[in-house]
Amino acid sequence: ETIKTTANADGTFRFENLNIYNDRVYLATVNYGGITFSGPMMAADLTKDTLDLTVNVYETTSEPAAIQMDSLTSQISIENNRLYVVQLVTLANTGDKAYSGASIPLPEGAQAEMIGEGRYSLSADGRAVVDNRPVLPNQLHTLHLAYSYPYNGELSISQPLAYDAPNGYEV
What we know:
The protein is mostly beta strands. The protein has no helices and 13 strands.
């Protein structure tokens, strides 16, 4: 069930006359600046009259200056003459604004295999996978990326990286 309200001038909000159940979890989300921010899911404590749900909301930016690559892990498999690569890319946001538009370039000639339909999309030129969720300040943010190539026994992959990696790269 979805219930909507508007926040007060100080950012607080309140829902009145709700039925609270102990076998459900509750989640508050806020739409601000075109981005949906979520708080943690919480179970109700029926011994209390209230359930406090906190959502941190940030100003947003599309400037990647505060974004760093914390880690990149790749898993490679071969099936039916195709080489599949699945990557987990962890980004860190060292700034104070939510970064929208995090993207990971695809290697030349790769075909995107979308993971998490709805969360990810291809860039307008089809050369990068874009995460539709914001990278929040002072939190690690993991992207799942998958792509494939035709494979006949030999392949060289070169992948550009869009963000600085202060911890260096290790292959």
